[in-house]
Amino acid sequence: MDLRRSADRWVLPVRGRGSQAGGPASLHREGKLTVLAGLFVALLLLILVGAPVLCAIGIVALLGIVLIPEIGPAIFPQKIFAMVDSFSLLALPYFILAGELMTAGGMSRKLVSFAETVVGHLRGGLGHASVVACMIFANVSGSAVASTSAIGSILAPSMKEKGYKPGFSASLLGTSGIIGSIIPPSMVMIVYGSLTGVSIGRMFLAGIVPGLLISAALMGTIWAHSFRAGFPELRQTSGKFRPVAVLREIPRVWVALLAPVIILGGILGGIFTATEAGVIACLYAFVVTFFIYRSLRLRELPGILLNAAITTTTVVGIIAMAGALGWVMTFMDFNELVFSLLVSVSQNPLVVLLILVAVMLFLTMFVEGLAVLVIIVPVIVFVGHQFNFDPIHLGMVVVVATQIGSTTPPVAVGLFVATSVVRTTYDETLKYCLPFILALMLVLLLVILV
């Protein structure tokens, strides 16, 4: 594992301000821990009683500001706007809109058909097709939830017809969706890069291998299930592999296959920035769906824009509120407290990284992964700086860990979406999710060690 720092530099202010002007110097170490623990408990309680994640984080952030006597509540809106005042974050609405255009234009159906042609001859062909389709759809969506919803809505009826157990289908689709957050363009990587100053283009490039590893791990899990006595439906295949049929499908999906070449090639070639790449992706999706495939009409555009606006508002709102809470934690010297605790346990960089990953996995079991990422970024940057971690490597570990945690019960957003798409119960989905989660954990371990 290469723990040396690369050419990227941490730019986020990470040191707490307790001993500086305006810091809560009056609070001793135990007092800070008590307040921080209280804020965390309050956040969990609000989420468990059903409060929206955005509102829960905002309430706790405001509560934390009120508990700091040196500052006033007026700083709350300042921090909210400061969190989203970033040129890099401008890429989010464009990539979201590009995904909406591709979905509304029927791209997901074309990808599923192509994926079935490529891997349908394997044992568990439909399951493999869902993974491959999510992997390709990730090139234009950048979102785990979007991938699960788009691909799941197409494949779920076919899986039911083939005799796939509803819980198994939901578990597979829910875990496959996280590929959308790993393979570029990834909204999570855009957020991480904008908060830390790490190159988003290099993050995109680094996400390719973990995305492929996750795909291989999930397909391996499906293949292993096909030999179990309780899964006769996975032994069905669509016949022999036919290269001619694959070649016939390529003209229908070439635009999705070309998208990552344009986006990554443009960013790494210095033609445009990651933010400008979002505009290019949006324009590309518009031209493809309206003029090449002609699958959309102008009268459908207002609805697509509305859906993209709602999704963008939710994502940016979570970033703003989580950033405010992260600032409160940094102001109360949470970074130094965590660093001191880690050093007291071990000074081995690998052990420290494993502890951080364990904490992230635990937090994302209860709080949405993107929110956790934004909240703990100051801690991650501080620890990364102190232990001289490579920023790109650490960024990939954080992204993969938070996304895997988001598929882990009890609060697993991806599994909830897949459960709704498959029209089964959450309890039924949980019966089959463990093997897929273990496969994802294995990939996370590889990302940490390599």
What would the average pLDDT be, to the nearest integer? 83
Instruction: Please count the helical segments.
Output: 22
Q: Per DSSP, what share of the residues sits in E-state strands of 2 or more residues?
A: under 5%
What gross morphology would you assign? globular
Q: Oligomeric status of the shown chains? A: single chain
Order of helices and strands: HHHHHHHHHHHHHHHHHHHHHH
Number of strands: 0
Helix content: over 70%
Rg from C-alpha positions? Answer: 22 Å
The residue ranges in which pLDDT falls below 50 over 5 or more consecutive positions are: 1-7, 12-25
Secondary-structure-derived class: mainly alpha
The largest sheet, given as strand count, sense and whether it forms a barrel, is: none
Instruction: Report how far apart the termini are.
Output: 5 Å
Could you give the topology of this structure?
Blueprint: H1 29-48, H2 53-66, H3 75-84, H4 91-104, H5 107-119, H6 125-141, H7 144-161, H8 166-176, H9 179-182, H10 187-196, H11 200-206, H12 208-225, H13 243-268, H14 274-292, H15 301-331, H16 334-345, H17 349-364, H18 369-386, H19 391-405, H20 413-422, H21 426-430, H22 433-449
Helix pairs in contact: 1-2, 2-15, 3-15, 4-14, 4-15, 5-6, 5-7, 5-13, 6-7, 6-8, 6-12, 6-13, 7-8, 7-20, 8-20, 8-22, 10-18, 12-22, 13-14, 15-18, 16-18, 17-18, 17-19, 18-19, 19-22
